[in-house]
Amino acid sequence: AQKVTQAQTEISVVEKEDVTLDCVYETRDTTYYLFWYKQPPSGELVFLIRRNSFDEQNEISGRYSWNFQKSTSSFNFTITASQVVDSAVYFCALSEASKGNQFYFGTGTSLTVIP
Amino acid sequence: DAGVTQSPTHLIKTRGQQVTLRCSPKSGHDTVSWYQQALGQGPQFIFQYYEEEERQRGNFPDRFSGHQFPNYSSELNVNALLLGDSALYLCASSFERSPYEQYFGPGTRLTVT
Fold first, then answer.
1. What φ, ψ does residue B100 adopt, rounded to 5°?
2. Which of A44, A59, A112, B62 is the most buried (most CB within 10 A)?
3. Quick one: pLDDT at residue A2?
4. Do B42 and A107 touch (CB under 8 A)?
């Protein structure tokens, strides 16, 4: 079974629009970590955020914000006032304490911001 | 402070051949993980090395093997290449005491023809 599901394969928005990328995860561990990474065309994964399972507090960093809801096993990512530079593939990932440091990635959401 | 580096950047091999990819971890990191990312997919965990030993392994055949050197750098070896091995291979490094802070390298793009 897929541990991380990113149902949105591709999203296109016009510059300055807000966009939310969905992530649903599955785990039986009580201790786990959730991540978001950005992958520009160059290929390198750029770390955006890490949350642990005991911290459901939402976080805002500039134009980025994250909504972590354990009740729905979701960890959604919102970009406010999108910019062309936000165009990339975004990955959600899960790491379970019982599985060591192994990361489980979703299939990614390709975001295109149209100028 | 250099980040994670990988070599080569690109590689083209023929079916049946063997390939070796290299990774140098971020300064101070002692753990190296390898991931395979097929086109249009998310990275998949291959294995992890710590203290020169394979500590964890994902669902990959024995054709995939690795090594970690005393300076913490690592190699990924793939034998008997298949067309399906064509992918971006990513290396990630971390510090044993902070396992969830993984830094990824730029990857090696392997094409098998």
1. -90, 0
2. A44
3. 76
4. yes
For chain A, how far is it from start to end, CA to CA, in angstroms? 38
Neighbours of B32 (CB within 10 A): 29
Cα–Cα distance, A55 to B110 (Å, whole number): 39
pLDDT tens track of chain A, all 115 residues?
679 999 999 999 999 999 999 999 999 999 999 999 999 988 889 999 999 999 888 888 899 999 999 999 999 999 999 999 999 999 999 999 887 778 999 999 999 999 9
Does B11 contact chain A (CB < 8 Å)? no
Q: Which residues contact B113 (CB under 8 A, 6 or more apart)?
A: B12, B13, B14, B15, B83
Which helix (H) or strand (E) segment holds residue A113: the answer is strand A109-114
What is the block-wise mean pLDDT of chain B (113 residues), using blocks of 10 residues? 90 98 95 95 95 93 97 97 98 87 93 98
For chain B, count helices (H), then strands (E).
0, 11
Structural tokens at position A62 = 């500039």
Take residue A28 and report the two structure tokens written for it.
Answer: 């039986």
Supply A10's token pair: 């591709």
User: What whole-number distance in Å separates Cα of residue A64 and Cα of residue A78?
Assistant: 6
Chain A environment of B100 (Cβ under 8 Å):
33, 50, 95, 101
Q: CB distance from B16 to chain A under 8 Å?
A: no
